[in-house]
Design brief:
Strand order of the largest sheet: 5-3-4-6-7
Order of helices and strands: HHHEEEHEEEE
Number of strands: 7
Length: 264
């Protein structure tokens, strides 16, 4: 007599499917956390690389820092630092950002929490849009007078790198929706400010250019002394952004007292 092959019953099959679904539900959050942590590490590596390029430029230019307009061209720090880094096309992008969906042939494009910014480059060879995810601390530019760009330029700008104080507390590069920012201690975050920020809505409040939801309420930052850190958005006011920045060593809140970042 032939033996019958044993098959799964419907109930047994449903039990197996339920167990698999349960395991997936347990593992997925851990896998997502690991993925986000990998992005954070890569982002920190990127700002370190940009700072290395920045310091190499400084070393060859008497520690003066990059210029706001390189040789009269409208390309700011990116073109100057790019010459020192062979992998600039990789390190200029935060792994949590993607292509800017706004198509433009001229002018600038502000980024968002998930999109690159676009900067209009002009050069003797022609003009183009360059993209990136990081911003430079504008108080480190070496131009003699940027009072038309930001108030109190002469009073608050840093001097040559070799004579700068608090180098372990002075930011250089950081995640940003724009190519640069000049934070002041009086900058605030409105109660309704959107950390995801819609593309092209460039905040005039300089500190808000850094208030982006890319790394769960934290911001990768490189410093003049060469080290990198992941700093909470609420702690940005504790850093030495300009020569006369009055640091606030407690957690900063929005106007009205609500948290700057709140996990949904």
């Amino acid at each position: 007599m032939k033996r019958q092959k044993k098959a799964f019953t419907l109930i047994e099959l449903l039990v197996v499917i339920s167990i698999i679904a349960l395991l997936v539900s347990i593992l997925m959050p851990a896998l997502n956390r690991a993925k986000e942590q990998a992005k954070n590490v890569l982002c920190l590596t990127n700002v370190r690389s940009l700072s290395i390029g920045y310091q190499m430029f400084n070393d060859e230019n008497d520690e003066k820092g990059v210029t706001y307009n390189s040789n009269g061209q409208n390309n700011l720090w990116l073109e100057q630092v790019a010459k020192k880094l062979s992998n600039i096309d990789e390190v200029r992008y935060c792994p949590s950002t993607r292509d800017n969906q706004v198509v433009a042939t001229t002018g600038h494009i502000a980024g968002s929490a998930k999109e690159y910014w676009g900067w209009y480059d002009s050069s003797p060879e022609g003009s183009s849009i360059s993209f990136g995810s990081y911003g430079l601390n504008g108080w480190l530019y070496n131009d003699s007078d940027l009072s038309g760009i930001t108030a109190n330029w002469t009073k608050n700008k840093f001097g040559k790198g070799a004579g700068m104080k608090h180098t372990a507390e002075v930011p250089v590069f950081f995640d940003s929706v724009w190519i640069d920012a000049w934070p002041n201690h009086g900058d605030t975050v409105a109660a309704d400010f959107d950390l995801d920020q819609t593309s092209q809505s460039l905040p005039n409040n300089m500190m808000c250019r850094l208030m982006v939801n890319r790394h769960s309420g934290n911001l990768p930052v490189s410093f003049v002394d060469g080290h990198i850190e992941e700093i909470a958005l609420k702690r940005m006011w504790s850093l030495k952004w300009n020569k006369n920045f009055q640091r606030f060593h407690e957690d900063k809140t929005r106007q009205g007292g609500t948290p700057i970042y709140k996990k949904n």
